[in-house]
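Predict the 3D structure for this chain.
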Amino acid sequence: MFNNTTKGINWNRLSLLLMILPFLILLFIFSYIPLFGWSYAFFDYKPGLGLLHSPFAGLKYFHLMVFEQGSELVRVLRNTFALSFLGILLSPLPVVFAILLNELRSKSFRKLVQTVTTLPNFVSWIIVYSIVVAFFSTDGVVNQLLMKLHWISEPTQMLSNSQGTWLFQTALGVWKSLGWSSIIFLAAIAGIDAELYDAAKVDGAGRYRSIFHITLPGIIPTFFVLLILSISNILSVGFEQYFVFYNPLIADRIETLDYYVYRIGIATNDVSFGTAISIAKSIVSITLLFSVNYLSKKMRGQSII
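Done. Predicted structure below.
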C-alpha cells in the first residue's frame, strides 16, 4: 500500500496547502497591500507633494471628523443607516421570490421569469437612470398616464422629491437585485434532500406544509449567513446608485457615506480626511461583523467565523 506520509510530512495536506497558496497570494496583494493607503490619514497629504514630503498630522483628521465635521457626518450616517435598514427590512423578499419560483410547475415559464428578473442586475446604473427618467420624470410615461386617467392634476417630481428618496432608491435596488439574490436561495433549495418531500407527500403534507416544514428550514441558515454579512456591511450601502441619482434637490437625503468619502477625498482633494473616514468605517464594519456573529453563535449556535 502506498504510504502518503513520509518522515512526518502529510503529502495530502501539503498538496491542499499548495493549491490554496495562489489565492492567499492574490488576497495579500489586492486586500492587504492597499492597506498601506491608510497611512495617508496620519499625514497632511497634498496631491503632487508625495507622502514622504508631507508633514505628520497624527490623529488630526480623526479629531476633525468627530468634533468639527460631526453634524455633517451625522446627516450622512442618517442617510446610510436609513437606506441600509430599509434594504435589510426587505431582505426576505428574495427568499419568498425563490420559493414561489421553485413552486412553479412549468419549467420553461420558471426559466423565463428567472431570466427576466435577473437581467436588471447586469444593467449599469447609468442605463437604469435613463430608464427611470423616461418613466418617472415630469414628462415621463407614468406621469402622463396618471394625468390622462385624471388621478393627478399635475406631474409628480419623483426624482427630486426628497421625502420619498429613501423609499424610491430602495425600490430601485430591490428591482435590480431581486432575481440575482434569489439565485443563492434557489441553489439552497436545490440542495434539500428530495426524499424529505417524498416522505412529506406520503404523510399527506400539501405544498404549503412542505414549504413551511421543509423548504424554509432548509434555506434559513443561508438567509442568516447573508443577513449577518448585510448587517456587517451596513455602512457600505453603495456608491454608484446614489452618485447617478444625486441632484441638489435631494442631496440631504441621498448622500451616503461612500458618496461622502468620494466627495471629500476625490472631488475636493482632501485625501487625508477621506482616508480617515474610510478607516473609521472599516473599524465599525469589522466590529459589527464580530458582534453579530457572536450574537448568532449565542442565539442560534451557528456562526460564520
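The beta strands are 5-6, 9-10.
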